[in-house]
């Protein structure tokens, strides 16, 4: 499911199955076959839209695994309360930066995740 028409065209030209649709609409989720899905990933950083879509997804598929992006730490709590596995952009960026710094100083004894924490 995608809302960018250029991306939809490109995916279709590659033979990829794609719907030009909005995940906050129950009809779109039904067309996408959400009832049969094992996993859904909200890859866009719009947390408000994700918070609208997640309950619609859960109504149709209670046991589905849901991943979503959170750009800022204050969005993580909202998503976790909905039972979403969160990929926290801000945290992942911080871990990547610490990992690069540790690597440049050749310090294998330092764990970037421990330095960054669970923000």
What would you call the shape?
globular
What does the largest sheet look like?
A: 3 strands, parallel
Residues in β-strands, percent: 5-15%
How many strand units?
Answer: 3
Q: Approximately how much helix is present in the residues?
A: 40-55%
Distance from N terminus to C terminus (CA atoms, Å) equals 30 Å
CATH topology: Rossmann fold
SS content category: mainly alpha
Mean pLDDT: 87
Question: Please, how many domains?
Answer: 1
Q: Write the CATH homologous superfamily.
A: NAD(P)-binding Rossmann-like Domain
Helix run count:
6
Look at the structure and give the CATH class.
Answer: Alpha Beta
How are helices and strands ordered from N to C? Answer: HHEHEHEHH
Strands side by side in the biggest sheet: 1-2-3
**Estimated radius of gyration:** 17 Å
Low-confidence stretches: none
> Which architecture name does CATH use?
3-Layer(aba) Sandwich
Report on this model:
It is a single chain. This protein has 119 residues and is mostly helical. The chain has a single domain (5-116), classed as NAD(P)-binding Rossmann-like Domain (Rossmann fold), CATH 3.40.50.720. Helices cover 50% and strands 12% of the residues. It contains six helices and three strands. A three-stranded parallel β-sheet has the order 1-2-3. Strand 2, helix 4 (73-81) and strand 3 form a beta-alpha-beta unit. The longest helix is centred in the C-terminal third of the chain and has 16 residues, at 89-104. The chain is globular. The mean pLDDT is 87.
Entry summary:
With 119 residues, the protein is mainly alpha-helical. It has six helices and three strands.
């Amino acid at each position: 499911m995608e809302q960018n028409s250029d991306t939809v065209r490109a995916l279709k030209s590659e033979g990829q199955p794609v719907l030009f649709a909005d995940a906050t609409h129950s009809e779109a989720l039904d067309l996408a076959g959400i009832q049969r899905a094992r996993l859904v990933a909200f890859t866009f950083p719009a947390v408000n839209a994700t918070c609208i879509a997640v309950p619609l997804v859960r109504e149709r598929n209670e046991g589905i695994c849901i991943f979503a992006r959170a750009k800022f730490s204050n969005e993580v709590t909202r998503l976790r309360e909905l039972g979403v596995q969160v990929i926290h952009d801000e945290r992942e960026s911080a871990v990547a930066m610490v990992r690069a710094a540790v690597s440049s100083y050749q310090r294998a004894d330092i764990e970037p995740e421990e330095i960054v924490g669970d923000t």
